[in-house]
Amino acid sequence: MSKDNKSRAGQGAGNGPVATGPDNASRNAGLDALRGLAVMLMIQQHLMAWLWSEPWINMTAIFREHPFMMALNGTGSMAAPLFITLAGAGSVFLYRGRPSPRKTLLVHGASILALGYLLNALTPHWFSIGSWYVLHLIGFSLVLSAALNRLPSWALALLALAFLAGAVLAQSWLDSPLFLNRTRISDFRQAGGVLRLALAEGHFPILPWTAFFIAGMIAARLIAARRMRALELAGIACIAAGAVLGLLYNQGFAFATYGPFYRAFVFQPHFYPGQPPLLLMLCGGTLFAISLFARLGAIEAIRDGNPLAALGRASLTAFMIHALVFMELSRLAGTFKVFSAHATLAIIAAVLLLFTLGARTWSRHRYKYGFEWLVRLPAE
Questions:
Q1: Which of 3-7, 45-49, 372-376 has the lowest mean pLDDT?
Q2: Phi, psi dihedral angles at 339 (to 5 degrees)
Q3: CB atoms within 10 A of CB 60
Q4: What is the band of 380 on the pLDDT scale with cuts at 50, 70, 90?
Q5: Which of 58, 246, 253, 312 allows an S-S link to 36, with CB 3.0 to 4.6 Å?
Q6: Nearby residues of 15 by Cβ (< 8 Å), 6 or more positions away
């Protein structure tokens, strides 16, 4: 790898699902492309739920009848971990690349948090006004990263583990159910209100999901230092730790099934609420994906003009538009949950193509007037 390409590997990842990093030739297009892939995973998962006429009641029966549809839908579970982890990586590159990095992180974070609550108001069929979703989590974490970026990596690793452990303690203290349904996950009228959702029981609460953001910060530092093998070993360690915790639960050990800290060992195929076994394995997979795409960007196998990279740069706009059109406006148009499986797949393919081609064309205008542009504007 040339010296120029090596330096390219450690710069300009931007913040997902909003790309607000440096807009120059040193940007790692591989990481933008990974965010673009996350956009695709997110859109197909949401559109399948919002357009397909299948009632989502008995999930086991749906899996048996429609294995391909549900397997495809399941891949969307990687979208949020990727967005949050890439946002953490982006905070590091932004911190190192701006003259007033702490101010920039504070402004970007506050802007994204505000957009999160705007989305709550604009999509009442999806969120309550007090819901805490991925935009809220990323906005909060970016604000926090103004201080976190000053910590050494070993301290960040310990802090990430503390956020995971804190989720176990918070869920135990609140006596959270092992499955939070759609109503409960947005109900801010419980004791603790909005803070309860933001801290432990929302869609992507601070405990434990800030751990993914911090993992992204560590990943960015390893990429910048060209320590890709260390990043991949970290991914292996996360996957192994999650598997061991889940195995202890599966084997029925008393401390792992009904002890005071049993939630640390519970393995479930969902993250509402998130428990360490699944989260650690998702984090490990995310770190591997970041390593792969960072390598591809460093050797210019993926360049800035790549359509997937362009989609990644417009991820926040894609996120906002798809939610407004397909969650809210589709109800007014009478197209919400009325399509067959084949029609739904065709619509998803068309929408993904439209977003990708649109982002590629928009890239020539530097994404002006999009939501990414709005987030950057106050800090410029």
A1: 3-7
A2: -100, 150
A3: 7
A4: low
A5: 312
A6: 21, 86, 87, 90, 91, 94, 108, 112, 138, 142
Residue 339 pairs in a beta bridge with: 52
What lies within 8 Å, CB to CB, of 262 at 6+ separation is 249, 255, 256
Compute the distance between CA of residue 87 and CA of residue 357 in angstroms, rounded to an integer.
24
Alpha-carbon span 290 to 231, nearest angstrom? 9
Give the mean pLDDT of 297-318. 94
Q: Considering only CA atoms, which of 32, 36, 40, 50 is closest in space to residue 72?
A: 40
Question: pLDDT tens for residues 353-374?
Answer: 999 999 999 999 889 999 999 9
Instruction: Tell me the two tokens of residue 310.
Output: 């362009």
| DSSP reduced 3-state for 79 | helix
* Residue 11 per-residue DSSP state: S
Provide the token pair at 156: 């960040």
Task: Say whether pLDDT at 292 is over 60.
Answer: yes
User: Region 86-94: what's the mean pLDDT?
Assistant: 96
Distance CA 133, CA 127 (A): 9
- Tens-digit pLDDT profile for residues 170-185: 999 999 999 999 999 9
C-beta pairs of 120-124 under 8 Å, 24+ apart in sequence: 122/323, 122/324, 122/328, 123/323, 123/324, 123/327, 123/328, 124/328
Q: How far apart are CA 161 and CA 239, in angstroms?
A: 14
Name residue, tokens 């913040």: 15
Percent of the chain topping pLDDT 90: 85
- Contact yes or no for 121/135 (Cβ under 8 A): no
Tokens standing for 371? 């939501």
Nearest-CA neighbor of 304 among 59, 21, 77, 44? 21
Q: How far apart are CA 176 and CA 201, in angstroms?
A: 8
Q: Which of 219, 8, 199, 210 is nearest to 109 (CA)?
A: 210
pTM of this prediction exceeds 0.90: yes
- Hey, how many other C-beta atoms are within 10 angstroms of the C-beta on 271? 18
Whether pLDDT at 167 is above 70: yes
Closest CA to 73 of 45, 53, 52, 51: 45
Residue 18: predicted pLDDT: 54
